[in-house]
Amino acid sequence: MGMTSSAPVVSGDFDLTMDELRVVARYVVQHAEDVLPVFEQAVPDDPRPRAAIDAAWAFIDGAGRARRQRVTSLDAHRAARSAPSESARLAARAAGDAASAAYLHPIARPTRSATSSERPRASRASGSWRPAATRRSATPCWNGRASVRPR
Fold it and tell me: Does an H or E element contain 33, and which?
């Protein structure tokens, strides 16, 4: 993949198919399952990380990217906050990360047009580039006066 020196470096500038994304998710969930018993021994009555693992497997087995992966991922991360040890916290986070692996890469559809929140307000070349309106204001932006320019 050749890039010229004037081209901006942007993460996500490669394509993944849904099958390739499932391979990545499989890798993540297999490793999360290895450490999940650490959390389950420390907090045996909390099913949230196991539910995240189950949601990840559902995606890997052919289900679409869905709310189930997002919700169980967040729940597993919430469980991690209340875990009694660092190793239990990390195990719960791994489960949450496994569930969210379905969303590691945007799957572009050629028939989908950008929504107004995804379109830049002005070009970067004009010096008035700003992030989409839905981003938080803490996101560095370049409006001609800001001290941080986008790379």
Answer: helix 18-42
